[in-house]
């Protein structure tokens, strides 16, 4: 198992002084008598400066695990909390200044530690990372080093400038593209670009990054001196995979509609997305990456309490961290456990709507009438169902008390006393035995990828279907959209499909369902997908249901838990803080806010 990347610590004292002012990162202070040459003159100090971009990356399933599934309808939350504001359409509350706002907006002045969860949030941390990238690119000629050293810094800086812009526009829509540094006295008046206009600039920077980044850091000239410590640095393959994702998002009906008033897939962006994903698939065909076998599926999301960091042959990129044990255990308890198994607070469980997406083992669709059938309700389902979810009476450890109780009753371990909103315990990130009865948790870590190979196949399938049809391929590719979907299904032991898409309205509908099932609860999926597919406002996607029953299973009733508020166009984009949009007239607020 590789050691996760460690940053260069030479600026651990310098940086807190540098980042006191967001107007000018290079202000000298009385406390730190340093010059630009001190920072940018040597490779080690330069990397120490640029490496803090890794700390700005928001870890969706570190600090924010219970929230993201809830926003998209995958999960349900029992307590009245700022999280519930999303389903009420109260996005001002959602990004307000409190615990939950860390995901979107957090104006903490400090950078944070290398192992934080991205404490600046996507907005403040993202713009801060963009400025840091621009500063690193601006001063590259000050580096007294080799061309390879300069390329390494430029490659990562181009990547992060693109990546942070992308993270911002996914929630807030098109933005000015900040590729220059403004002085503290400047009043920039750049108009907001459309989503697709911003995406074009992101793509141009991604291409620059891909040309400069190594395939494997350990095999590069610089990396050979630090083998085993570079895991987590962005690579050529990971950047190419993210390029494919970003282009697919730009191609999607929402983004195309708001850019061109055409709420269908954009053919050009779809073709470019398919081509980028195919480049990564070719690397997999050459042995650079591979899907993990089904028996090792859990290793994609957690270790087995053995003190190792989570990294597999399927992992393309994840946020580097050193944290194993108490911190990771604490967040896992908070997010995924009921109180009698070790929770510290409210937990997220799966909605019945989302559970319905898991097919039967024979590939047929789940039907509502199966709720009453003990042989079909939770049995004979897609193997990924039980890999993601524990149901009533399932053992989650060897101890006699390590049993999940999903029924409704008066007992302390029953719903709602166990703090669960639904019967479906999300166990994707929890290894067997990790609870207060079995007590196997001290060396535990959960750390899902920021992007993994399975998503690349799914991105490819969606883009190809949009551009060329289910049996089409990207130019020069040997894989159809149907083939790509079947690679994912075959790994899980599910029947292969054809372009006929039996049980679905279209093959694209099947692709979308496969994506939801494979990437369930991973933080990158359904809240983004339900918006970019332009289906959030449809009436069938507003009610969220639970399945309620008694201890003896004498009845099973679907009950409405939440009726989501999702207005078009208002709730397709987050509001931007008023103090931001009041800076100058060209920086417009999102529609409806």
UniProtKB/TrEMBL annotation:
Compartments (UniProt record): Cell outer membrane
One Pfam family cited in the UniProt record for this chain: SusD_RagB
Protein name in the entry: Nutrient binding outer membrane protein
Signal recorded as keyword: yes
Superkingdom, natural source: Bacteria
SUPFAM superfamilies: TPR-like (SSF48452)
Chain ranges of the RagB/SusD domain: 339-593
Segments forming domain SusD-like N-terminal: 103-246
Alphabetized InterPro entries for the sequence: SusD-like_N (IPR033985), SusD_RagB_dom (IPR012944), TPR-like_helical_dom_sf (IPR011990)
CC per GO annotation: cell outer membrane
Keywords, ordered alphabetically: Cell outer membrane, Membrane, Signal
PROSITE patterns registered for this protein in UniProt: PROKAR_LIPOPROTEIN
Organism from which the protein derives: Cyclobacterium qasimii M12-11B
Family named by the database record: Belongs to the SusD family.
